Amino acid sequence: MKISEAEIVLLTGYGDTAKGHWMFRWQEKMANASVLELKNRFHPELKVWRDTLVARVEDATKPVVLVGHSLGCILIAHAIHNLPKDKVRGAFLVAPSDWDRENLVPGFDGGAFKPIPRAPFPFKAHLVASRNDPYCDYAVAEGLAKAWGAGFQDAGEAGHINAESGHGPWPEGMMSFALFMKRLG
Known about the structure:
The chain is an alpha/beta fold.
C-alpha cells in the first residue's frame, strides 16, 4: 500500500509531546497524516481517548493506518474491538509504555489503561522497541508484540525514541514505516 492511499493517524503518548518529535515531523511531510488531538494529556481517560480515536477512524474516507507512540500504542490495544473492522489496515507501534509497571509516571497511576490488553490485533501491526527505554523493558515490549501478533524490530539503545532521546527526525523510523506500508499491500 502506498502511503498516499491511506489516512495516517498519529497517536502521541502521555503528557506534552515536543514539537521536534518525529510524529510532528511526519505530519509535516505527509499530507494525509494527522496527529489526533487527545484531551487531558496529563490525566488521560481511556474512554474519552478511545471514543476520540473511534470517531476519527469512523470519519475516515480512506483506509486508516494508525501510528502510536508510548501510551498511543496502549490506546490502540484498548480500542481494537471498538474500531470499525473494515477501516483500519494496520498499526505501526513505537516504544510502548508499560502501564502495568508500578509508579511508571509519578502522580498518575495509569487509570483504566491497565492492565494492558494482550489480545491479538485484527489487522497487521509492527512494533519498534528500544533496549534501554526507561518506560518499558525490552522483554515487555517483545512480549507485547508477540501477544498482539505484531512484527518486532530492535531499535538498539534508542531510549524512548522521542525528541528527548535524540529522535527528532528519526529517518530510520520513516524507512521502517515505509517498509511496513509496502507490506500492507
